Amino acid sequence: MPSALEEGHATELLTLELDNPEAAKAVPGVEEVLITAHRVQELVPLPEGSRYLGFIFARVDTPELVESSLRRAHDKLEIRVSGEQ
After folding, report:
1. Domain ranges of the chain
2. Which residues of 39-66 are buried (b: 16+ CB within 10 A; e: fewer)?
3. Average pLDDT for 45-68
4. Which of 2, 17, 52, 58 could cysteine-pair with 69, CB 3.0–4.6 Å?
């Protein structure tokens, strides 16, 4: 499979900093906050890229409550992504 660079997509070595995952996990209904990105890795922005920074999983009674829990948990996270210039 060709790399993103070979396909002509802009890539950059990025540094990820994430704070407050415990606060996100404490939101009612949130079962897990899973960070899948490495602290330093090459990322291609979506939709061309195929990597996410991570996932938040929630389980409550209705889809509306799930969405609310996910949004509140996301709001608790402090995510900083910076590139090397």
Report:
1. 13-38+53-83
2. eeeebbeeeeeeeeebebebebeeeeeb
3. 89
4. 58
